From TrEMBL:
InterPro entries: MbnB/TglH/ChrH, Xyl_isomerase-like_sf. Belongs to the UPF0276 family. It comes from the Bacteria. This is UPF0276 protein ABH309_02140. It holds the Pfam family MbnB_TglH_ChrH.
Length: 276
């Protein structure tokens, strides 16, 4: 199954505190996403994930591949991801448009990249190498950012559009990240959205930000804010329904709270939230 068969369905990020409850109770969840790296070592976590994949469509979301890095994708990481994909047959595989490593060092963060032709050529090579290794196309997620590189030659939407054209990858549109960038950096979100090839947008993420020293920080630690809900409505009116995911990774609430957030998104996807 592919998430493209679920264009109007909302899912949740399934995190460790909810594994047991979800499997025991098996609530109605449109689909679920997990972080790929948590299951690379096999054992009990992988056995649990196999059970999850039997109950709901599964999305594997990576946070460590760093396809925007200057160095090539780590071969060991790619091999582990390939094994996981083969084991679970996910409906979607995604990564971030970010860098996190050099040949000698890794950082535990999702760092922004310059939007230049040189960077595009490098990232396209890494995306193609990854897709060849996995035997399937992946989705690339736009990033929240707190600084901009000088000398950018295109905006993020144009960069992603070129990347999809060159590699055949898809786009994971994180609406919260785009909103954060609009507030923090003055990003022209209309221009970014206008540049994106709508047919390549395979998935949407929603999450809650925090406010620190006058900036919005993409912490995934709160409910989705009203301003982001309104922005999401605008995006859905523009591009049509897309599989949507509620992310909540810090200060994780009860599973019912994630289901309530998913229900809000579902109402918007179905045009029945009652708001213009």
């Amino acid at each position: 199954m592919s998430l493209t068969t679920l264009p109007g369905v909302c899912g949740i990020g399934l995190r460790a505190p909810h594994y047991r409850e979800a499997l025991d109770r098996q609530p109605e969840l449109g689909w679920v996403e997990v972080h790929s790296e948590n299951f690379f070592d096999g054992g009990t976590p992988l056995a649990m994930l196999r059970r999850v994949a039997e109950c709901w469509p599964l999305s594997l979301h990576g946070v460590g591949l760093g396809l925007g890095s200057a160095a090539r994708p780590d071969r060991g990481h790619l091999a582990s991801l390939k094994r996981l994909v083969d084991e679970t047959c996910p409906a979607s595989v995604s990564e971030h448009l970010s860098f996190n490593h050099s040949p000698h060092r890794y950082v535990n963060d999702l760092l922004p990249i310059p939007y230049t032709r040189a960077a595009l050529d490098a990232v396209a090579g890494h995306v193609s190498e990854t897709q060849d290794a996995l035997g399937r196309a992946i989705l690339l997620e736009n990033l929240s950012s707190y600084v901009e590189f000088p000398g950018n030659e295109m905006n993020e939407g144009e960069f992603l559009a070129e990347l999809t054209r060159i590699t055949g990858c898809g786009i994971l549109l994180d609406v919260n990240n785009l909103y954060v960038n609009r507030v923090n950096l003055g990003t022209d979100t209309e221009a970014v959205l206008a540049a994106l090839p709508l047919g390549a947008i395979g998935e949407i993420h929603l999450a809650g930000y925090s406010e620190r020293e006058g900036m919005l920080v993409d912490t995934h630690s709160q409910a989705v804010h009203d301003e982001v809900w309104q922005f999401y409505r605008e995006v859905i009116r523009r591009i049509g329904p897309r599989p949507t995911l509620i992310e909540w990774d810090l200060d994780i609430p009860p599973l019912a709270a994630l289901q309530a957030e998913a229900a809000k998104a579902q109402a918007i996807l179905e045009g029945r939230d009652g708001l213009a």
